[in-house]
Write a structure and sequence with these properties.
Layout: H1 3-7, H2 14-17, H3 23-31, H4 35-54, E1 59-67, E2 70-79, E3 82-90, E4 93-94, H5 97-111, H6 114-141, E5 142-149, E6 153-160, H7 169-174, E7 177-184, E8 189-197, E9 201-203, E10 209-211, E11 216-225, E12 228-242, E13 247-261, H8 267-275
Antiparallel strand pairs: 1-2, 1-13, 2-3, 3-4, 5-6, 6-7, 7-8, 8-11, 9-10, 10-12, 11-12, 12-13
Helix pairs in contact: 4-6, 5-8
C-alpha cells in the first residue's frame, strides 16, 4: 500500500465531479449505498488489508516523479531492511559529476546511519498506519453505486456520505471526494481509484486555508509479477491557499516501471548495486 493509496481517491470525470453531485447523486444520498456496491467495497478493503499483512515481497523499479519545477528519475531497490533510491536523471538529463558524487555521499551516509534508518522506518510505519486507517474508512466515508461490470472487473461510483464524521483533516479531505473505483474480480484487488474534491475544503473556517473544489487525484495499480499488485501511477493535482495566500496542496505525477523482484538482502547490498548504475 503506502502513501499513494492513502492519498488516493481523476481526471476522466473531473469536469462533472467538480460541479458537485447531480440528480443521480442526490437520489443516491437519499437511498444510501447500493448493497452490492458496498459488499464489493468491503471485500476489496479486506483483500487489501490482508495483502498488506502477508505480502512482504521486495522489488526494484524505475520511478519518474514530476512536480512543479522538477522532473526526476530514480532507481529504487527494496530490501527486507528498508529501501534505497538513487537519483539518475534531472530534467531528462543524466546527473553531472558533482550531482553523482552528492548522491553517492547521501546514500553512503544513510547506510551508515542507524538513526536515519530508524527515522525512515518510523515514517514508513506512520504512512502505513494512515493508509490502513483511510482504507478502512472507504465503506463509510462514501455512498457507493455500481456503474458497470464485466467478467474481469466491477466499476463503482462514490460520492461523499453526508452522515460520515471524519476523525481528522486527512479524513475530512478524503470525505469530500467523489469519483470511481475499479475492482478486479480475481482477488478483489483495487485497480483504479480516481476522483475530485466535490467542494472547497476550508481549514479553520477558511481563515487558515482552503483546498480548491475540483482538485483531482488518480491512482493506478497493476499486477507486476507473481500475482503481486503494486501502484504503478499516481497523479495528484490539488490546489489551494493557506494563511497569507501561500500556495498549498499537491501537484505530482509519478510513474513506476521496470518492476523486478529484488535480490538484495541488506541496504549495503542495495547501495553497491545502485553505485554501479
Amino acid at each position: 500500500m503506502g502513501r499513494p493509496l492513502a492519498l488516493a481517491i481523476g481526471i476522466a470525470m473531473a469536469a462533472t465531479l467538480a460541479i458537485g453531485p447531480g440528480t443521480r447523486s442526490v437520489q443516491a444520498a437519499r437511498q444510501g449505498s447500493d448493497s452490492g456496491a458496498l459488499q464489493a467495497v468491503r471485500a476489496a478493503v479486506e483483500a487489501e488489508l490482508e495483502a498488506s499483512n502477508t505480502d512482504h515481497t521486495v522489488w526494484t523499479y524505475r520511478d519518474q516523479d514530476r512536480t512543479p519545477g522538477k522532473d526526476a528519475v530514480y532507481q529504487t531497490i527494496e530490501t527486507p531492511h528498508g529501501s534505497l533510491r538513487r537519483l539518475l536523471e534531472l530534467g531528462g538529463k543524466p546527473l553531472n559529476d558533482a550531482q553523482t558524487e552528492a548522491e553517492t555521499r547521501r546514500i553512503v551516509e544513510f547506510v551508515n546511519s542507524p538513526s536515519e534508518q530508524a527515522k525512515a522506518h518510523r515514517n514508513d510505519q506512520h504512512d502505513d498506519a494512515q493508509a490502513r486507517a483511510m482504507l478502512k474508512m472507504l465503506p463509510d466515508a462514501f455512498l457507493w453505486t455500481i456503474s458497470s461490470q464485466d467478467a474481469d472487473a466491477i466499476t463503482l461510483s462514490f460520492i461523499p456520505n453526508p452522515n460520515f464524521s471524519p476523525p481528522d483533516m486527512q479524513a475530512r479531505v478524503m470525505g469530500t471526494m467523489a469519483g470511481t473505483m475499479v475492482i478486479a474480480k480475481n482477488g478483489n484487488r483495487i485497480r483504479t481509484l480516481k476522483g475530485a474534491l466535490s467542494q472547497d475544503v476550508n481549514i479553520g473556517w477558511g481563515l487558515l486555508g482552503r483546498l480548491n473544489q475540483g482538485g483531482t487525484f488518480q491512482v493506478e495499480r497493476r499486477l507486476v509479477g507473481n500475482g503481486h499488485w503494486q501502484i504503478t501511477e499516481t497523479h495528484v493535482h490539488i490546489g489551494g491557499h493557506a494563511l497569507l495566500f501561500h500556495t498549498i496542496g499537491q501537484q505530482e505525477d509519478e510513474e513506476k516501471t521496470e518492476w523486478k523482484l529484488s535480490t538484495e538482502l541488506t541496504l549495503a547490498d542495495a547501495a553497491r548495486t545502485l553505485h554501479a548504475m
